[in-house]
Every structure is written in structure tokens, then in C-alpha cells.
Amino acid sequence: MASDRMATPQSSSRQSSSLSSSPMSTRMQSLQVDSVQRWMEDLRHMTEVECMCVLQAKPIGVEEDSQQGELIVGSGVGAGDHVARNNLQTLLRRALVVSTELGKMFQRLEKGRWQRVHSTAVRANCHVRSLVHEYSAARSTPPEMQKYEKSLLEKCMELTNITERCLHTDDEFFLKSMREAIHEILTDVSDSFSNMIDMALANEIRVLIKQIESSDSVHTIGSAISNLLSLTQDGPQLCSIIAKEGAVVALFKICRQDRFKDLYAHALRTVASICCVEEGINQLDKVDGILCLADILTDESSVEAARAEAAAVVAQITSPHHTSTQHLASFLESMHDIVTALIKLCESASCGEVFLLASAALANITFFDSMACEILLQLNAISILLQACKDRQRVDTPYSKDQVVTILANLSVLEQCAPEVLQEQGIERLLLLLGEKPSSASPSEGAACERVQQKAAVTLARLSRDPDVAQTAIQLKAVPRLIELCRSPTERNNSDSVLVACLAALRRLAAGCPDSIEAADHQQLIKPRLVDSFLLCSNMEESFV
């Protein structure tokens, strides 16, 4: 399954990618500002209500010598490639402040704290007016956005006035009726503000996309791509806006021009982030993006970084979390070439991140088409993956092991898989994976270890249909380890899914070799119905005797 960066652009790093959670690495582009400038920016959002009332509707001015469209954020704002980022970051920062104030109003309204309701309404009104005037001074506002601005400002003023009326009465009946009216106006304000911000962001995004499409400068295009990538980290809603404005189309145009080869990796990383939403995948499908990905993956002259990011896009669009599968029809046409390129990338990966991306893509592909499993067997994938597990430079985290064991679990459905696993000493590796433990208190790492244990047990159970595999597993003491995982909650991180998988593997081995399990264990773990054994083990307190 795709890594977290792919499923949820606002989530965690690529290192927390897993087959059970969708999307890949979030590399937040931090603003390059000194401490004084940051203080000056933050100070604007920490003013007192009285000051804000005085400054109401008085925007920060635009310097006379500044280029049209630059939003002044305080002293020292750089021009050129920093302007667009400052515009976007300021817009998002302001939007967050207003949204927070509106959220506080809803809470205080429910509690009937009228003084605070009014003061919050005043603050929200001031912030909204300041945002609108600043943005209008920095950009030519589209007509449809002007309509929302006017309506929003009127509603904010109405909200301020009506909340003030509630300060001068104790009439409960009047306050109750006012509460309902304020709630309705507040809901309208929230909706209008959200629509206006979406339009403003779309306007800024169009500026960035125009830079990508019209510029011949690698530096200018790279800066615009960086700004888009930074935006994708703010959540799926922004990714949807970016996709609808045609960013995926523009980025693939870059990836089809040899003169921009140095930008391929950067562009594809952004595409992968955008494709966490269906709109992004639909845009990719319309421009035959899969063919472009196949070309980059199979081009031996492509640098490893570009091929790794192409793998990231493949992992994203093949994630089982996506409800739409229409794009997979065109994927099947290029599947053989893509699978071949991905397993080669796993074999030659220079670091853990490259291996993680390539193996995550392969893991997702093996879920939706059995032909991919047959192709992988023909390409000696079992040997390549098991050898990679011995190389800490490539497989260095539970997340990478999660991808490997998922591929093995899906390949183990095929009968011809068992002999190859035996030949490559794969049973020994599966037993090592059954002992996977987190090296930190990170919840995501703990979850990845659970998935590794679960899938290792599933793979062992499937392979043990082959008598030779079952015999080898018993000789390597798989049974005691499986029993330990069943009986000791801490060994399996208190995971029920690991328990079920281990019980299934244990019963598979017991069916072929009944003598390998002692009578007491057989009585509790094998003889009862699976659900009864599960309930017994899940309620079992660990014994330290």
C-alpha cells in the first residue's frame, strides 16, 4: 500500500509509510526567515481587540517600488521566488487565525458567554477585513471572489452588531432567540469565508501553474513547483484545488521535456502528493501520465531520484485506499514494464528511501492483479527481496520490511513460490520477521512492526501447504515462536490481528505435523474453534513464571 506521504499529504514522513495506511513523505518547506521577521509576522496576529478595532479596514500598504502582485508581509520580505510562497503562507496563516476565532465563537455561543462571544466576533471581523484588504491590494481580485468578499464583510459586521445587542439584556427569551440567529449567521460566515479562501488559494495556484507552463527558466519553474509541493502538505482539500486548477497536467508537461530532466524528481514528488485525492489521479489518467511514468522508470539514463519519485507516484495511484479504479485499466497496459523496472530499482537502490518507494509500489500492484505476482516470480523477485533484507543500507526500518513481507505474502498464493522461498532460506527470514520489535515508542513504528509480524505469519501459513516448507519451519522451531506470540500479548504488541494470523499458521503446521505440538498447547490452541482459541489467548494474562 502507499506510504503515508501518498495517502495523506499532511501526514508523516516516508519512513512511516505502510501498506495499511495511504500516502508518502511530507517534506514541509519551512519559511526561510530570521527570528526578527518571524516575530514581526506573528505579532500581527497577537494584537489586542482595542488595537484591532482602531486599525480595522486599514491594510498593510504595498511599497511603491514593489512589483504588482507582491503581498507585503512585514519588513524584509524578499522578491522573486519568495513572493509567491509568502503570499500563500500569509493567506493560510490568516485563514487559520480566522477559522480559530470562528471556532471559538461556536463554543462560547453554546455556553452563553456573551461578553466573549462579542469580543471574538470583533476580532474575527477585524481579521477578515484585514485579510480582504491586504489580498485586494496585492492581487487583482476575480469578480466571483469579490462577490464573496462583499457578502462576507457584511455578515461579519452584522455578527458584530447582533452580538453587541446581547450584552445589554438579561432577557432569557431574547437571548435564546438571538443565539439561534447568531448561530445561523455564524454558519453563513464560516461557509462564505471558506469559499473565499478557496478562491483566493485557487487564484494563487493559477499564478504558480502559469509560471510552470510559460517560463523557460529552470530556477523559476523549480521555485513554483516547490511552492506547490509545500501547499500539498496542508491537506487533501488543497490538493483537490491544486488538481482542479491543472497542476498535474502542467507537471507532466515538464516531465516530457528533456531540457527539464533536472526537475523530473521534484515534479514527480509533487504529482505523488497531489494524487492523494481522486481529482489528481483523474488528471493523471487524462494526460496518459502512466505512460510517462513507465518511460522514466525504464529509461536507464534517468537518475535514481527521478525513478524513485516515479515509483512514489505509482505507489500512490495503486493504493487500495482509492475508491476509483478507472485509471488502473491504462496501468495494466504498461504493467510488465513498470513491474520489471521497479524490481530492478529494488535491486540497485542506493538507500532505504529508494527501496521503500519501489517496494511499496510493487506491494500495491500485487494486490490488484495476480499477473503481477507471476511476472515477479519470473524476474527472480523472491531472491532479490530476501537478499535486500540482509542489506541494512536498503532495508533499514520496519516500514521497508512491511513492504517486503506484503509482496511475499501475495506471492505465496502461487504454488511455485514455495520452492524458491526454500532455496533462498526464506523461512529463516520469516521467523526473524516474526520477532520484529519497534526500536522506539513511535506509534507508527509499533503499528508497522505489528503488520510485519501479522504478514510473516500469513505468509508462513500459506507456504506451509507445501510439506517441505512445513517440515523446514518445524525444524527451525517456528512452532514455539508462534505459541509464544499467541500466549504473550507483549510479544505481539497486544495485536489481535497478529494473534489470529499466528493461530492460523500454527493450525496449518499442526495439520501436517501433529506431533510437533505438545498436548496442552494442542488442547488450547488447535482443538477448539479458532474463535474460542482467540478469545482464550486475547484474555490471557502474561505469565512471568
| Largest sheet features | none
Q: Estimate the mean pLDDT confidence.
A: 82
Order of helices and strands, N to C? HHHHHHHHHHHHHHHHHHHHHHHHHHHH
> In angstroms, what separates the terminal alpha carbons?
41 Å
What is the rounded Rg? 29 Å
Shape descriptor: flat
In terms of DSSP E residues, the strand content is under 5%
* Helicity level: 55-70%
Instruction: Give start-end ranges of low-pLDDT stretches.
Output: 1-13, 15-33, 47-81
Helical stretch tally? 28
Total count of strands: 0
The class by helix and strand makeup works out as mainly alpha
Domain Protein inscuteable homologue LGN-binding: 31-76
Region (Disordered): 1-31
Domain Protein inscuteable homologue C-terminal: 94-545
Organism: Lates japonicus (Japanese lates)
Give a brief rundown of this model.
The chain is built from 28 helices and no strands. It is an all-alpha fold and 545 residues long.
Which key terms come to mind for this protein?
545 residues, mainly alpha, cytoskeletal anchor activity, Armadillo, Protein inscuteable homolog, INSC_LBD_sf
Model description:
- The chain is an all-alpha fold and 545 residues long.
- It contains 28 helices and no strands.
- The protein has helices spanning 4-7, 35-43, 49-55, 81-111, 114-138, 143-165, 172-214, 218-232, 236-244, 247-255, 264-274, 278-286, 289-298, 304-317, 328-333, 335-348, 352-368, 370-378, 381-389, 398-411, 417-423, 426-434, 443-463, 467-475, 478-487, 496-512, 519-526, 530-538.
- The radius of gyration is 29 Å and the shape is flat.
- The two termini are 41 Å apart.
